[in-house]
Amino acid sequence: MTSGPGGRIVGVSLNQPGNHTESASTGTELMRAQSIIADLHAGMASVITGHDALIRTTIAVLLARGHILIEDVPGVGKTTLAKALAALIDTRTGRIQFTPDLLPSDVTGVTLLHDVEGRSSFRPGPVFANIVIADEINRASPKAQSALLECMAERQVTVGGRTYRLPDPFLVVATQNPIEMEGTYPLPEAQRDRFMAKLEVGYPSAQAELLMLDQRDGEDPLDALRPVVQATEIAALTRFVHTVYISPVIKEYLVAIVAGTRAHPAVRVGASPRATLQLAAACRALAVLHTRNFVIPDDVQEMVGPVLAHRLVLAPQARAEGVDPAEIVRQVVTSIPVPRPA
């Protein structure tokens, strides 16, 4: 690795050594992936107008075997986005409406005792699905929120001393309102760290909002969506994404960025090692979205904000000053030399 002008790294190979041309099988996998991705993107774009970057990141997290947290004000399409993704995949979908009186057993399920001899059976909760929509997750108590910790990290549920595996693929798409709004409980750090990415929908542009008025005209576009891919195909695609190559210099770049969040003076707790792993997985998935079987710095720079910002715990002074964690991530990325191909 050598440093060029301005501290940028030059003269490095980002492709897999000895494999600069794709094999026939890899090319076929990439073509199949592009077909699936295009169908998913088109279906979601028909419902969520003017949010291509949001849709792209959502698909990347799905293929990276991550979980998504969508935060924004009511009415901008958080739940609609989650329902659109679920409708496009022919699979089991569970929905949990998080409320202040929700119990952990309402999420994971309950063991029922049938007679005095101790015979019992397990009644699975809505979390036993391939896609779980956790709607308004921060309106439930921390005790109810914690029911998802084991599910998201280990893809299993333990109830009554017995462990039950969750189906594959398994994706949690959670929505939440900003914590300043009435009746919300902030997610604990451990819960936030289990979400691969946090996304914001935002208000549509005036043109997109006009198009929405023209397209809907009293009809719900979700009703027109049909499955375009099987759950087994998504599972196979996630396995292919795991084979995408990350060169040593890109790995060093990832680690340097994550380490930079821990050293920033405005941050009390930086991004975790789990964040490093999930950033790498998200970059692999984004590379596939761009029809590549190797990761480049542009992938890292696109995914680093959604993957890292929500994990940062700010120092008290920074929190009092209203410092934006996303801005801290941008500062860190700017300070790290960027690997460039030879």
UniProtKB/TrEMBL annotation:
<dbReference type="GO" id="GO:0016887">
    <property type="term" value="F:ATP hydrolysis activity"/>
</dbReference>
<dbReference type="Pfam" id="PF07726">
    <property type="entry name" value="AAA_3"/>
</dbReference>
<feature type="region of interest" description="Disordered">
    <location>
        <begin position="1"/>
        <end position="26"/>
    </location>
</feature>
<dbReference type="InterPro" id="IPR041628">
    <property type="entry name" value="ChlI/MoxR_AAA_lid"/>
</dbReference>
<dbReference type="InterPro" id="IPR011703">
    <property type="entry name" value="ATPase_AAA-3"/>
</dbReference>
<protein>
    <submittedName>
        <fullName>MoxR-like ATPase</fullName>
    </submittedName>
</protein>
<dbReference type="Pfam" id="PF17863">
    <property type="entry name" value="AAA_lid_2"/>
</dbReference>
<feature type="compositionally biased region" description="Polar residues">
    <location>
        <begin position="13"/>
        <end position="26"/>
    </location>
</feature>
<dbReference type="InterPro" id="IPR003593">
    <property type="entry name" value="AAA+_ATPase"/>
</dbReference>
<dbReference type="InterPro" id="IPR050764">
    <property type="entry name" value="CbbQ/NirQ/NorQ/GpvN"/>
</dbReference>
<feature type="domain" description="AAA+ ATPase">
    <location>
        <begin position="64"/>
        <end position="205"/>
    </location>
</feature>
<dbReference type="InterPro" id="IPR027417">
    <property type="entry name" value="P-loop_NTPase"/>
</dbReference>
<dbReference type="GO" id="GO:0005524">
    <property type="term" value="F:ATP binding"/>
</dbReference>
